[in-house]
Amino acid sequence: MKKIIYTLASAIVLLSCKTAQQITTTTISPQVNVSIDLNNIKDDKVMVTILPSPSNLNEITFNIPKTVPGTYSIDNYGKYIENVKAFDAKGNSLILTKIDENSWKIVDAKKLQKVTYWVNDTYDTEKGNGDFGGGDVFSPAGTNISPENFMLNTHGFVGYFSDKLEVPYTTTVLHAANLYGATSMIDTDASNTKDTFQSYRYADLVEHPIMYSKPDYTTFMVDDMEIIISVYSPNETYKVADISPAMETMMRAQKKFLGAINSTKKYAVLLYLSDMKKADAKGFGALEHPTSTTVVMPEMMPKEAMAEQLKDVVSHEFFHIVTPLGVHSKEIQYFDFNAPKMSKHLWMYEGVTEYFANLFQVNQGLISEDDFYNRMSDKVNQASAMNDTMPFTTMSANVLEKPYKDQYLNVYQKGALIGMCLDIIIRENSNGERGILDLMQKLTNEYGEKKPFNDEELFDKIASFTYPEVKTFLETYVSGPTPIPYDKYFAKMGVTQSKRKIPGNVFLKGQSPYITVNQATKEIMVLPEIELPAFYAALGIKNGDIIAAVNKTNYNLDNIYDLIIASQTWKENDPITVKIKRDEKESELKGNVKLPYEEAEGLQATDASKSTLKNAWLKG
After folding, report:
1. CA–CA separation, 40 and 58 (whole Å)
2. Sign of CA dihedral 293, 298, 300, 302
3. Residue 561 to residues 241, 451, 574: CA-CA distances in angstroms?
């Protein structure tokens, strides 16, 4: 998961009924059939019907997940399930007892023929505190039910039986003909109102979300991988054509960066844009799956900012096809949805993934070396604000509980820096010939998507593929309490801290704004009697002026957020037009952007003798 956030690969295994040779009875292979009816919405809920093959147990439990892979939070999806009922083949009710928020006990289970229940969604109940255990379900892991859009994160709709976790699932979705279900699964039903999907076990189904909406999608091939991008924009602010060109460029660069390490054949990006003016999703970011990503962003976000956010967020999720899809522990392979045991190695699953999401951009020329150094420097600063002596493996294994879950966000900061340091160590010891991508390729070859490793054995296995210095680093700085001396590792690549000028924002200096809002008129006004940066004088804007429009877009209190976000994409000397109002008279000012600059400590390549090694690190 990014801000936000993968795990197991998909396969299709169809088990047929077979007749024993010595007897006349028919043995039914264990399986579960699911029907989700999207045609009949009642009080913002839809009905799910589950028909399991016969059980040989007298008592079983039916469960809705407490948590799912990639979220690292307790979400209790059972609280969105209502009116759970169990029936035998004659339609008689069976005794069903609720055990806790997510589980129901079924007695006389040998008679069980079906379970039915109603599912409520999460998006329209969010209060905006769903980021990593704040209260709501994190939106990319949530659900939506409306006639125009259904976000089927399947773990929020489909439960499992205690005796049938590892059996095949067949899921049928009934829907209106004008809705298209975007997913990386294959629909085996030719009907335009019924989709049927096969999953080889429950965990496989959970890893395949589906988004139903009016068709607005595109597909393209990246080498031998089919990519599908589907967009839901409630006010039609965005079309897939606005999103896909930059996404295609990015994903081609990612595939080139990965080389032979990836074998995924189909990948889906499901983009849900939230209407911030209504009760809608408020947790922005993405959740990874082995062959897809669910992304939630505010529809009001300007296009340049949206493109930048999607590049970082989706690239992170896409790289999860390396880990934990291709390399993961038993805790992930046999994930317990209601009594989860977490792996010690979030530094790899999330940290190395985040590092790749930044490294590939400089490697493939999407960002400059200075941009990359700035990103790593920001991560050092943010990591220093977290608990730097808490062993990362300890935090990871206990991430669902306090105080460890409060440190989860550090997987994107210190976790990425751990990946960077390992990359540097391997590059240095191999004279630039190999890096951490080579290590992940070897680990993928050793394990793969269906062969998990033991948590306690990973460091030794990594050492066997690399160098003793790598294991020393892992034991000292990852499983140990010692803070990482980042400057030492940057210096190995000829990169050191030095003074530099960094561009600031024309409307904010730190937390101090240059503009304010007249609450009565909603107008945006330049603050009076304060010293303004050169941006204002260069355009002829004065203290007290009203900023009515920028580059032909009108702004006021209702969309001031858009103005701030747009300004973050401005570059030095970009052409700009600003409409102002002064003394009740409007005028249009034209010129070029002049950004404010501040002197700050930053990373720069300063040792030319290390340039060959540095180039192997960033471009190899």
Report:
1. 34
2. negative
3. 24, 47, 20
The residue type at 263: S
Q: How many CB atoms lie within 10 A of CB 263?
A: 15
- φ/ψ bin of 305: left (φ > 0), alpha (ψ from -120 to 50), beta (otherwise): alpha
| Integer Cα distance of 181 and 86 in angstroms | 29
CA neighbor of 293 nearest in space, from 305, 304, 285, 302: 285
- Token pair 């999860």 is found at 320
Residue with tokens 């530099």: 500
The tokens describing 203, both together, are 């965990």
Q: What is the DSSP-derived secondary structure letter of residue 609?
A: G
**What average pLDDT does this structure show over 514-528?**
95
SS3 269: strand
For residue 389, give the DSSP letter.
T
Most confident segment among 127-136, 255-264, 425-434: 425-434
Interhelix angle 353-363/240-258, nearest 10 degrees: 90
The single-letter code of the amino acid at 611 is S
Alpha helices, DSSP H, located in 319-467: 330-333, 346, 353-363, 369-384, 392-397, 414-429, 436-446, 458-465
Q: Which two tokens stand for residue 600?
A: 């700050």
DSSP 109: G
Q: Is 479 exposed, middle or buried (0-12, 13-18, 19+ CB in 10 A)?
A: middle
Spatial distance between the Cα atoms of 508 and 77, rounded to a whole number of angstroms: 41
> What whole-number distance in Å separates Cα of residue 96 and Cα of residue 107?
7
Q: Quick: pLDDT tens for 398-442.
A: 999 999 999 999 999 999 999 999 999 999 999 999 999 999 999
Rg of the Cα atoms in the chain: 27
Residue with tokens 């730097």: 388
Backbone φ/ψ region at 259: left (φ over 0), alpha (ψ -120 to 50), beta: left
Please check whether residue 67 is in contact with residue 74, taking contact to mean a CB–CB distance below 8 angstroms.
yes
Looking at residue 14, the DSSP 8-state letter turns out to be: P
Identify the bridge partners of residue 49 per DSSP, sorted by sequence position.
Answer: 35, 116
Residue 176 tokens read as 């209106």
What is 494-523 written as a DSSP string?
A: TEEEEEEEEE--SSEETTEESEEE-TTT--
Angle at CA 555, nearest 5°, toward 552 and 560? 135
**Rounded Cα distance, 620 and 608, in Å:** 17
Contact call for residues 66 and 203 (beta carbons, < 8 A) = no
| CA–CA distance, 287 with 296 (Å, rounded to integer) | 9
pTM summary value: 0.83
Residue 398 DSSP symbol: T
Angle of helix 458-465 relative to helix 436-446, nearest 10 degrees, comes to 120
Q: How far is CA 475 from the centre of its chain?
A: 29
> Position 469: which residue type?
E
Nearest Cα to Cα of residue 449 among 203, 186, 175: 203
pLDDT grade for 16, boundaries at 50, 70 and 90: very low
pLDDT of residue 2: 52
Which amino acid makes up residue 334?
Answer: Y
505: CB partners within 8 A, 6+ apart = 564, 567, 568, 596
The pLDDT tens digits of the residues spanning 460-470 come to 999 999 999 99
Residue 292, phi then psi, degrees to nearest 5? -165, 165
The encoded tokens of residue 56 equal 């040989």
